[in-house]
Amino acid sequence: MQVAIVTVGDEILSGDTVNTNAAWLCEQLNGRGVDVGRITTVPDVVADIARVVNEYRAEYDAVIVTGGLGPTHDDVTVDGVAAAVGRSVEPHEAAHEWLTEHGGYAAEDLVDGTTDLPAGARMLPNEAGVAPGAVVEGIYVFPGVPTEMKAMFEAVADEFSGEATYTTVVDVDEPESELIDRFEAIRERFDVTVGSYPGDSVRVKLTATDEAVADEARHWLSERVELVDGAVDREQA
Questions:
Q1: Is residue 95 helix, strand or coil?
Q2: I need a labelling partner for 164 at 20 to 30 A (CA). Which of 36, 44, 108, 179 fits?
C-alpha cells in the first residue's frame, strides 16, 4: 500500500509550528508495512488543498490530510477535499448525532459548520476533541491537533497495511563517502535497502522483507566497517 500525506496550515509554512504530525504518521505507516511516497504541506487555501489532494488521490492508494478542521475562518480543509472529489459540503447527520449523544455537546452549543463534511463521506468521530474527521474516496481527513490526529488515526489504523519490513542498524565510525563500495556490495549480496544518515557517526539502516536477511546483512556489514567505540550492531523494531 502506498500513501501520500498532506499537512495543511499557514503556521507550518511560517515556521510557527513544527510538523510533528507527518513524522508520527510516517512512523506508524512504515511500521505497518505501508510506503509513504509524498509529504506535502499546503497553506490554508482551498484551491491549493484541492489541487494537491486531487493529484495524489490519482497516484496513491490513500491520501491522509491533517489540519484545518473546524468552523473557523481559516479551517478550509473540508472545502478543499470536497472540491478535489467534486462534492458539496453539507451538515453531516452522523457527526451531529455523535457530538450530541456521545460527545457531550448540546445542539445549540455547536458552532455553525462544525459538522459540515463532504457529501456522502464517512464520518470519523473525534474522541479527543470536537471537529469530526472524514473518509471520502480514499482520502482520510484528520485534525491537526496532534492528540486528536493520533486518536483518530488509531481508530482506522487497520485500514492501512502492507508487506512487513524489518530494519537493523549499524553505527559506523567512518566518513559516509568512504562507505560507498561496501554499500554497493551489500546491495548485491542481500535483498536489502540501505539508508545512511551522517552525524557524529554514520547511522546505517538496512531494511528487508525477510527478518533473517536483514539480520544477516547487519552482521556482514558490521564485520567490514569501523564501528563506533563501544557500539555493537543492533536491531531496530
A1: helix
A2: 179
